[in-house]
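User: My instructor asked us to take a sequence, write out its structure as tokens, and then describe one feature of it. I'm not sure where to start. Here is the sequence I was given:
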Amino acid sequence: MYRRLVEVLVVAGLFAGFAWAEESAAETVAPQGKLVPRPLYQDPPFDAPTDPVLCFNAEQNKWFMYYTARRATAENAPGVTWIHGSNIGMAESSDGGATWTYRGTADISYGKDAHPDDYTYWAPEVIWHDGVYHMYLSFVPGIFTDWNHPRQIVHLTSADGVKWDTVGPLDLKSDRVIDACVIRLPNDTWRMWYKDERRPLSLCYADSNDLNTWEPKGNAVTDYNGEGPKVIHWKGRYWLIADCWGNGMRVWSSDDCTNWSLQAEPLFGSHGDVVISGDRAWWFYFGGPRQPGTPRQRRSTAINVVELSVADGKLVAADPAQPTYIDLKPVREPER
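Assistant: Let's start with the prediction itself. The structure tokens for your sequence are:
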């Protein structure tokens, strides 16, 4: 009798152990996707990629990354000369965004007739619509030691995402505009956010029916001054992220894409892009976490990525000290 009782208890214990093991395994399943390296990407020629934007290239079945190729390794470059004279670098990924390979610079000719050796390209925005790639490029006509010079946003188009034809500069009623971000609204019109340095508060927006002609509407938000705006629609709300320098990457949310509420907690990093794939989203940024008020270093290090989530109505980035898994699907990202 005693021996039979022991056998029953042993069998019961084994079943309980199996159940506990299965439950623990379910709780510790690794996130879907591939583990990303840190840093994610460094620019081979100049070691200072900034302002990344991503677009899936269906023709080559790869994700493309476009970025400002700052010349951090340039010698005899006083002031902010090294931030000027930049091309638009390109990298590609064939494994869902986990690893990136340098593929050169975007084939752009705008401005080179008048400035063959001293043009500056910054902060591209790249979208795909109705069979055409569109780039909204920040252009500076020269290489300068300070920031006090004209700049404009130029519209380019491409059939392959590599060679770009000029449509022309945008008339945004200012000679100091940079950093475009474009999405399509529910009524099928288009909205652009950008920085207008002629305004006391520089984060502005404009609307268009055709991606060519834009009507400036004034300030998008007035809580902070900033640049590099990025707007997405995710988890039932619009989110506006902007690089507000010493005040961090500030985040606003909106139900209608017009009236914005500031969240208290900023993101980290500098001027970046959010890629939505399936029901997940990732924040691509350059640099890394820095304390408010800390100056940026000349060498911008690299581009990194973390996954985003929404918690308690706020946009939250995962801890960059923890592993990040990525799984960008081979599908064009909707511009809505």
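For the description part of your assignment, you could build on this observation: The mean pLDDT is 90. Try explaining in your own words what that tells you about the chain.
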